[in-house]
Please model this.
Amino acid sequence: MPAVRWFRRIIIILLVRSLQGIISDKFYSLAQPEPNYYCYGNSNIHGLTSADTDNADVLPKVWQQIESLIEGLPLVAHNKGFDEACLKAVFKTYQMDYPDYVFYCTLAESRRQLKHLPNHQLQTVAEDCGYILENHHNALADAEACAEIALQLL
Model:
């Protein structure tokens, strides 16, 4: 999400933390975007609508819950450019200081290491790494798959 646009909002905060090669913690929370509206196309992908986030906290409050869990740890995403740009845009929107997180990308690493794959979509890479992604586009399922990929490739 390089440029800030209406769809560059964070509505789900999740964390799948692995320490010493083992998934040790999971955190999931909805975050109410401001304004709390959704594009039909995006809702078709992730299944969420404004009704899902009507009672959720805004991002700064949710972020306070995980800040200490990720302090000093790198962040990992499958398409780091998208996730990192989203995070920076939301921090800017809420006038929060962005702590320059170290970000790793399982998409880039899969392209480097897994050249035999027909594509490097999350579900394809996860399967090649021995993880079956059964609920693709569910944020927690995608994060778990990314964590499993990261444990093998990074």
